[in-house]
Amino acid sequence: MNCPKELKYTTNHEWVKIEGNRATVGITDFAQGQLGDVVFIEVPAVGTKVTAGKGFAVVESVKAVSDIYAPVNGVVVEANDELTDAPETVNQDAFGKGWIAVIEMSDDHSGEELMDSVAYAKIAEEGGH
Predict the structure, then answer these.
(1) Which of the chain's ends, N or C, has fewer CB atoms near its CB within 10 Å?
(2) How far, in Å, CA of 75 to CA of 97, rounded?
(3) Can you give the pLDDT of all 129 residues of the chain as single tens digits?
(4) Is there a contact between 7 and 90 (Cβ–Cβ < 8 Å)?
């Protein structure tokens, strides 16, 4: 299982790359593997206010429809609209071109509760939660 060390993770299988006050968000390699072939992604609109732990996007696969949860509080400043036409990108490059959105964090403490790659790998190896 791929778990890049430079990223942070949630128990809901989102990855987060924090740069300054911006957080790029996607679903993990583990999550896309569990979902199977992704057939549709509803990305959030730019300007959407998000709350950590609340759904802000939707991914649909051949197996299930799942919410993607915001890992931090803030406002969506970029959305990966390319996923609308090519949702399979999440399966092919979950940690690269498969990113979902960029959130401008609204407080300095956003992201402190996120896990490192070692902690996340343990959760994923135990079956997900």
Answers:
(1) C
(2) 21
(3) 789 999 999 999 999 999 999 999 999 999 999 999 999 999 999 999 999 999 999 999 999 999 999 999 999 999 999 999 999 999 999 999 999 999 999 976 667 789 999 999 999 888 765
(4) no
pTM: 0.93
Q: Which helix (H) or strand (E) holds 91?
A: helix 89-92
Read off the tokens for 38: 């992704």
Q: Which of 88, 118, 93, 107 is nearest to 18 (CA)?
A: 107
β-partners of residue 16 are 8, 25
Place of tokens 């549709």: 40
